[in-house]
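The records we work with from here on pair a chain with its fold. Taken together, the tokens spell out the fold as the letters spell out the chain. The record below shows the convention in full.
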Amino acid sequence: MLTFDKVLEMYDLERSDKKEIWTYESFNNHNLVARYWKKLVAHCNIRFKAEKDNNKLYFINQMVYRMSKLDDDKLKKIFINNVFKIRYFRELKLGQFQVKEYDYHQLCFLLKYSPESMLYAIDKFADMEAFDNQKLYSFFQIRYKESLRKSYNEEQLYYFYAISILGFVNILEQYKELVVKSNNQILISYYLKNGLFGQEEIIFLKSLIDEKYWFQNYHLILYCSELLSNIEDSIGRK
């Protein structure tokens, strides 16, 4: 018996069959991404001046530069997501930074490349006093519409979240007809919860009685006063 197994037996433990297998390539790629964001943080810390309130958003430029050094699209997305998730960014005092026009363009580039990163980044920028939300209006108006014409439900939810945080309610209302036909039951449920559908969309949703629509129908009953007031009959029809 191996020493490792003896120790496990001593403490009444057993081996785990769930283990991640790393190839040389995957291990190297993982380390490469980690090295890049660590270098980014180091460079940005050097440039940051705590006594100033007009520091440049150097890290955005560094993100664009360093992701261009990665060959794989998946790695680029992982890099973007990781930078916005790490403590450096989450604890960064953005009130001590200024925002230039090119910062908005580079940020849009990053968000478009990895829509998932909106989950980790957009709330920080929305709370930033010097950040002009309206500079991103056209970007989200165009990209949200494009996402609704595809079948990537998660991406649609990322855009919905970011648009909601930024307060662009009219964009959400503008594309409610695309949303109601999107087959994205989670997104449809959010629209129902926030009262973003008109009577025409509600009528359409009521016509969807197949069992596969159970999730959105549950929320339809929950947030439609007419159906909720007669809940037993509504459940029977659905």
Notes: The chain has a mean pLDDT of 87. The longest helix spans residues 24-47.
